[in-house]
Design brief:
79 residues; mainly alpha; 2 helices; flat
């Protein structure tokens, strides 16, 4: 027997803001790492391994001046 449920979630303004900030950061990290991988592919290099990409676009990016706002969200969803 298959059962199906429908849920609707009503977020508070603070929760909406937090999710928007998280998904915005996620999009930036995704786009940066995707362009890096595409550039490696065009040059004929191997695809970079996941820890290398995480280190460059999450850990080191948080330390730069124009990406320091990435440190204001949890790093777990960005991985």
């Amino acid at each position: 027997m298959k059962v199906r449920f429908k849920y609707r979630i009503y977020l508070t303004p603070v929760q909406k803001y937090g999710l928007a900030k998280l998904f915005g950061c996620f999009g930036v990290v995704w786009n940066d790492s995707l362009s890096f991988c595409q550039e490696k592919y065009k040059l004929g290099d191997k695809k970079p391994v996941n820890p290398e990409v995480q280190k460059q676009f999450i850990t080191q990016a948080k330390k730069t001046e124009h990406r320091e706002w990435l440190s204001k969200v949890s790093a777990i969803p960005l991985q």
